[in-house]
């Protein structure tokens, strides 16, 4: 395991093996094949090319992951991350960021249905999925089904890569498997099946305030009406209980990791497709100050918008009825689209994989407040064994300078920590440990806890 401090600017990057080049070429060909699909007027030919492209991407990615990580001993090896153009904000990273950002811009603002089943630049890609969409959802594909398919495939393929890379850690194997399961089952297949049975497309793995409109009056009315008396009520009950009861309880016992690193689709994409970029998160104090300013502002804003919508819907303040809808649309545009999508994913190769989770997600802010002030979760450290290698800080995607805590033997209790466990896995000395211990010992270092335990035993 290497860190930025151990690399020099002129250190050679190992030559890529022939088989690795071949497998990566398959991925590149698959991505390139998507371009003619978008402009092919022949729907049947475009469909075959589309699924051929997905097959090439899948085979290349899975084969590359098996070869790359299967031919080296178990353990975390992040060699040459700061020397490769793809993982150190080089030309490849910039091109990747521009392509991702461009895709989100086209998806959000240039691919709306024109009423005749046409989806702009993505039209052929969208309709290539019609057979699959009809089989799953009993309706033709649309731009959001295309996006959901790409999103889920990215988590599954890059999740397989993570399983190979972190196969030495049972924690990461189970955690990655959980993210793949919830994305495929609860965020892709189940909503589609609900549509097939003419029920609302409901995502059971997303809650308010992340899925902010689930507690908006219009959404509540829609779910109760179209969901039926039983299912609609259950959906509302599920949202309310998870948001206001289960979330505080689970966060008290396990920290925010139960959701951000085990369930959430945003976290799922960050932990799988975004794993190559985790070292890019800014660890400066300035970045932390902006993080606090922005994320809690977003949380306060969605609480305010939700409250105003309900007050307006009640008719108690008639003047609000003309303000609340534009306000909710503005929030959806600025936060739900630009921040979480265009910036949150498009900037992966430049700012790290948790830009949205760190700076903008209201759910992360909500969970973080509970974790910092009330939870039993913390990461204990043993400063006596820390060798200051910096591996822990290098892999922290939330911008926490873990090494500073480890050197002092202080427990890490931060609102932003998602409990991914990468700092512990990357540590060569076993200095860091994720724990859900008693709150009375929460702010004590591992050495003090060990001393207390010896005193009690004696």
From TrEMBL:
Transmembrane segments: 22-39, 45-70, 91-110, 144-164, 176-197, 230-254, 294-311, 331-350
SUPFAM superfamilies in the record: 4Fe-4S ferredoxins
Any Pfam family: Fer4_10
Molecular function terms from GO: 4 iron, 4 sulfur cluster binding; metal ion binding
InterPro entries: 4Fe4S_Fe-S-bd, 4Fe4S_Fe_S_CS, Electron_Trans/Redox
Recorded superkingdom: Bacteria
Keyword Transmembrane found: yes
4Fe-4S ferredoxin-type domain residues: 377-405, 409-437
Gene Ontology CC entries for this record: plasma membrane
Keyword annotations: 4Fe-4S, Electron transport, Iron, Iron-sulfur, Membrane, Metal-binding, Transmembrane, Transmembrane helix, Transport
Full protein name: 4Fe-4S ferredoxin
